Amino acid sequence: MYRDAKPINWVAFRIVLVAVLFAAGTVLLMVRAYRLSISDAEALKKLAGKQRKLVLHLEARRGMIVDRYGEPVAASIEVNSVYVNPRRISDKQQTAKVLAEILEMDENEALKKLNENKHFVWMRRRVSPLIADRVAKADLQGVFTDTEYQRFYPLRNLAAHVVGFAGMDSQGLEGVELYYDEDLKADPIPVTAQRDALGRPVMFTAMGEDPKRRDLHLTVDRNIQYIAERELEEAVRKEQAKGGVAIVMDADSGEILACAVSPGYNLNVFGKTPADTRRNRAVADTFEPGSTFKVFLAAAALDLGRIDPGEKFDCHKGLYRYNGVEIHDIVPHKLLTFREVIVHSSNIGAVNISEKLKKTEFFRILQGFGFGSVTGVDLPGERPGALPLPGKWSVLTKANIAFGQGISVNPIQLTAAFAAAVNGGLLYKPHAMKRMTNALGEVVREDAATPVRRVIKQSTSEEVVRILRDVVQEGTGKGAAIAGVDVVGKTGTAQKADPAGGYAKDRYVGSFIGAMMGTTPRLVISVAVDEPGGRNRTGGKIAAPVFRKIAEGILALCGSGPNQADRILASAESPFKKFSQCPRKKVKVRKGPHSGEWVVPDLKGLDMRQVLDICGKMKCDAAFQGIGHAVEQDPKPGRILKEGEALKVSFEDQQS
Predict the structure, then answer these.
(1) CA 335 to CA 176: how far, in whole Å?
(2) What pLDDT shows up at residue 269?
(3) Is residue 486 exposed (0-12), middle (13-18) or buried (19+ Cβ within 10 Å)?
């Protein structure tokens, strides 16, 4: 007999079921809470940070480059750049259309960038203030502007081949910008952008300290540089030449005061200039020096005691058959003393002098002057030239080298060697850096003048100076003479090698290298004019007058008239006297009647650094011409200038 089944208590069942579910939920919540607050806390915190923050690495301000007096030749100015967050843009087609119109870019290119699956994409870097303002006013979703730095060269083409340039990411590409890139560049500054719920940046906060940048102080004097470039350009134009180089160097330290290369180019638009024009021919090009090399022949013969200054040589009336070849002199002579061989630049006499020297000893002295190896100058791209080893010299090699053929040099190398020949026999390493300073103006590194080695005896150097003084006073270098100034030097006219073999009949390099010996410091000035196209092709006719004009210009900077006998360029404290400057005045920059407009102030009398600061405040396109202090401007004072428009300022020297 079966007992009736006990009925199910559904009320109790439901209570138990609910209790179990609550208990399970509580356990799950406790596990979840544990994971959120303890086990997965760090990972979730980082994830939340990524969602809330956008980290940008902004370009830092690159160090300035200034001349020997602290006047800027390269600076970094603030500009705007446009970037987007493609993931925050809903209507990419319309956004691309608007941006393409504002940024003047192809719409398909803009759309391609907006379709990238990234949080950050550059649309256009370093735009004008007007374009940045138009982007801001468009108020496009996911489109932003930020501040970067752009390299600006206020002197445009002045000392272009020395200064060089930096690229889009402030990386040095040429000149001292490249050579000292590690000092000038600054690490990007990490910046965090706090975002709201829609992903829009609402606050920027710098992360970490600003990088420590350094400023480069050059040995270059921009006033002397301007004179050298002006006179060289005029000579190249007048002689219809291919180009030229002019260098001014302190004979007693190796400091490069000027390095002019023609043709030049505007550093602010370097991308539009052919690479061949941007090449620094002062270090990257080599040439056969011709008769300027007789200076080192004379130094070797005198230092080794192989010659007497009064010894005479048969110059065969201008035609000498030597070991199967003919050697010519432009002006025929019969007998010439050792001094006269150099003064009148006789090739035949130079060959006779070389007969007094052994190959190894001649090579040793030439090597001591630095030929055949790089000087170590702080300019990139230097080529060492060619000085064959004495074991490879043929019968004719020593004779050819005696008058500057069969050997090649670069202009800086030749200038440094000449300085050693006339300064007492000490070779200095040429250099363009004077010192490096930090953000506080403290000197962190300095290039002190130290001789590399002694090449010849001081007595030998003094005798070389006496001979080279006669070259200018009565020989081939008369075109370099300046009344009342102790000038020494040597001319050179060298045929250029023909790629097909031998020497080209109509391609020459006319050169002159000399020094002002009665000044403090003693200055070496070298000039080389490449492939002159006119009738005059000799160094005495083409290059010597350029030397004279550069030298007279330097003397005039220091208040010395061309006919004064006493020319002291320096005081005991500073390398050169600076001309008197206009008193500094304070200029207030006022806003114009509408947004983005400025009232142009009176810039007359301001130096270039002051004008550069004002242009930065007005966000205008600065265009500078000349050096010194402002004398003219366009637009005139009081006119209204819109942001991004050009402000042209002309500068002139103010001489004492």
Answers:
(1) 50
(2) 86
(3) middle
